[in-house]
Each structure stands twice: as C-alpha cells, then as structure tokens.
Structure to design on (162 residues):
C-alpha cells in the first residue's frame, strides 16, 4: 500500500503526515509525528495506555486508524498543559497524589481521567474505578489514581457539569 498524505488536527495544530491506509493513529502519533507521550502498551485495546481524545471523546489510538481521525480534533497528553507550561488540574492532581510509579500508564490514565471528570463520572470512588477500569496499571497505583481524579474533579467543578 502506498503512503498518502492526511492532515491531522492535533493539540490545536494541523499536521500533514504520510500514512498507509492501515496505519493506526497510535503509530502516526509516535512514529511519524514523534508525539511519544501516547504509549504503546498491548497494541490490542486492552490496557488503555494509548488513550487520546478524538473530538472530546476518549478513544484507544491503537484501535483507531489515522485516516479515521482526519477532520477531527485530536488531543494528546502533550497538549493537555497550558501553552505557558501550566499543568492541567488532572496532571497536577496526579503529582500531588503520587498517582504513578513507573509512569508508563500515566498519560493514558490522565487522558481517561480528564474524560471521566468532563463526562460527570467522578461522583464516587466506585464510579471513578468503573470508568477508569479500561486503564491498567501494572504497579497497582489505583488508590492514588482514584484520589487524583477526586482531587481534580473538586478543582474542576465546571467541567463536570458541562
């Protein structure tokens, strides 16, 4: 299959990238655009390490073809902090709650946590655990991850209602 150009709108900027029709969004991000914050874990949609947002909805980049994302707004972990480097409230909460150990799953966890709060699923510990269950952490930092989501949800009440 020949490579053909597509335009991906990532973190507020257009990127033209050459991809084959079968190239996943994950591979386009990591290998073509060098946005390596999105991690390749299982590459089968089971671990959540590759979670990004597509038009505001969380998706698994390993199961999404790059061509499917053309024309949509893609948000990755690299675009979450403010332009001045100010951390997003979820990123700050992960630091404050020590919600990571090895850090490999952290970008996917954070992207899912942002969606969890935005979609209004951070009302209780059980609700957070259920929503976040698609993101695996080999180190077992789950209690700290839940605490971080609760902290961020308290700091972002307007996002939870929108």
């Amino acid at each position: 299959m020949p490579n053909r150009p597509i335009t991906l709108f990532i973190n507020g900027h257009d990127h033209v990238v050459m991809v084959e029709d079968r190239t996943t969004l994950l591979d386009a991000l990591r290998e073509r655009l060098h946005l390596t914050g999105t991690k390749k874990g299982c590459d089968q949609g089971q671990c959540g390490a590759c979670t990004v947002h597509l038009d505001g909805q969380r998706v698994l980049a390993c199961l999404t073809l790059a061509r499917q994302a053309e024309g949509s707004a893609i948000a990755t972990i690299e675009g979450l902090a403010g332009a001045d480097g100010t951390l997003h409230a979820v990123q700050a909460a992960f630091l404050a709650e020590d919600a990571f150990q090895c850090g490999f799953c952290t970008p996917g966890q954070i992207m899912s946590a942002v969606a969890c709060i935005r979609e209004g699923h951070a009302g209780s510990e059980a609700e957070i655990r259920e929503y976040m269950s698609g993101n695996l952490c080999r180190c077992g930092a789950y209690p700290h991850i839940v605490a971080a989501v609760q902290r961020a949800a308290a700091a972002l009440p307007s996002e939870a209602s929108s």
